[in-house]
Task: structure prediction
Amino acid sequence: MTKLFLALHVLAAILAVGPVTVAAGMFPGALRRAQADPPDPAARASLRTLHRICRVYAAVGLAVPVLGFATAGSLGVLGSGWLITSIVLTAGATAILALLLLPGQEAAVGAVEAAADGSRAPVPEERAARRLTMLTGLFNLLWATVTVLMIIRPGSTTGA
Amino acid sequence: MRGRYLRVAAHGELVSLIVLLANLATAHLKPLSSLMGPLHGCAYLFVVIAVWRLDRIDTTARAIAVLPGIGGILALRRISRLGMHVRPMRQDSGS
Result:
């Protein structure tokens, strides 16, 4: 059962976190293009698609910590330092993604839609795109650190 | 969109707790508890944070959401009774 949990955990991490990384990385560029020309339907469509990929795969990504805890529980390593560090870093990455990155994207999509409707004057807001770039970078840095911790497992007898 | 996730998580919170307790009372299957435990914990956290982040929500609904097990479903009932739309009204809500 441990092997099944571990395989599903790694599979879920690859399938869920990968798309979020790519789509969130492409979002600020698409946002700049859409802000430059709000009536352009293609730019808005790609912006919405990128946001939707981030949102849906973030939800799918909830399987990663669930299966991770299941694996750690059946391995009996829940008290290890490397694992607790990983859990804290993952919690930070999840908070950045769910509480800052996704709402920020949603607000940016809403602002571009409103500018396209003409209900709001098109304000080229460079700050939003820069902030999203920074948050995406921070998220990527955190989960990359967790991935390295998962492989090296410092202090563990089964570590590399 | 967020409404659907919240609904799924609220039911998952209750179902996983029932499965956990049923397993505790009967078969004591260890793999089942090591899967259902984290599932319940994550569903609980998701429900609490998702309810707390809803706009135009009253303190009672927030307090109800913190209740273990049935908190999510009770909060959902209260939200729909108050006539609040969980799903934000947006043009892209069809996605």
The helical segments of chain A are 2-36, 41-60, 63-75, 81-117, 126-152. The longest helix of chain A spans residues 81-117. Chain A has one domain: 2-152. Chain A touches chain B through 20 residues (CB under 8 Å).
